Records
---
Amino acid sequence: MPARSPAYAAIYRTVRRVPRGRVATYGQIAALAGLPRHARQVGYALHALSETSTVPWYRILNAQGMISLTREGSGDLQRKLLELEGVVFSARGHVDLKRFQWVPR
DNA sequence: GCGGTGACGGTCG
DNA sequence: CCGACCGCCACCG
């Protein structure tokens, strides 16, 4: 996973801290990476990842606990990967952040 | 260098 | 609980 910039590297480092079975929001990752108000940048950085990347990109959701991928299919993959780790989606595609959001120590 | 473009987020009605 | 708006800011053509 190439780090095109120090910012991307910081983002990838932070995303890698999210443990299995938990999720984080774009804004949360941005803040933890030392880049407040750069939630969109987190989206860009993850979008730029290769398929073979070890970064758990699929553990990142938007502030409403929903999958933000707009592209066909990729959203289904993200949901499947999360469910495989025990993350539960409501009928409307919501994840209860109260229950599954990662709380850094 | 400029302007359109988002894997976003907080607010308001 | 929605949808609409608006502010944000690095990318890329």
---
Amino acid sequence: MPELPEVETVRRGLERFVVGRPMRLVEVMGTRTVRRHPAEWLLTQLPGRVVRRVTRRGKYLVLGLDDEVDLVLHLRMSGQLRARTPSSGPRLAHTKLVVRLDGADELHFVDPRTFGEAFISAGRGASGRPIELARLGLDPVLDGVDPEALAALSVSRSRPIKVLLTDQQLIAGIGNVYADEICFRAGLLPYRGAGELTDPEIERLAAAITSTLGEAIEYGGSTLRDERYCDLFGAPGRFQSHHFVYGRAGQRCARCGTDVVGIRLAGRSSCYCPSCQC
DNA sequence: AAGCACACCTGCTAGC
DNA sequence: TGCTAGCAGGTGTGCT
């Protein structure tokens, strides 16, 4: 499930592959991927426009096109963006969107579970970002996470730390995987109430958010056993071997040897080390 | 208002 | 070996 590090890795690939190139032709397959407006809008509005920049906010990708038009993409659970060239072979199964660039190169949106989406933004807000993304909270990589900001977010909140970390309206980009890893690196149990953290604990949490996401980006994100995330050019992530707890319930903690515990928290699987985290 | 459950969907896996 | 039930999870919606 692509989270901030995976989406950022894809964004960097897009910067190399599509920026400065015109969109020539668009195909939309199925009815679910484009669902905020008629799919025909993509077919009529995108061709002829050049991709000027590719930005990211949380887990959303924004392709800024000519005339201030933004194409917004979200990979959700199973979405992939893939660069396709004449030598790529047949289309992958579950290809939902094809954008032909100049030459014969194509950008494909592949999404087996069809949770992902693509849409043309209705406009930009005062921030210069698509108005559909106005609800997103601070982006820990773009905006940084200083302890004061985190303390302000968590004050008087009884919700578990992990629930706060994955609330996109507070902090945008962290999902189930990195929330578990961040809690481990901060030495904090994921179910502790966010409002009860001490100042040193908040500092550790802020540092863990920054270091975990930064390191994961350096390693190209995480490709999990049952997921098939890969970057724009088909390469898997390499951060999964640096995971301490996610998906490791019942196995020994790599740091101390204690068995990692798996629980359900707010309907999501959660893993932690009862010795390293308190 | 805030917090929670659920729908959406397909592929994989554990268990029979 | 083959089948099936259960699980995986980000976001929007609707209910309490």
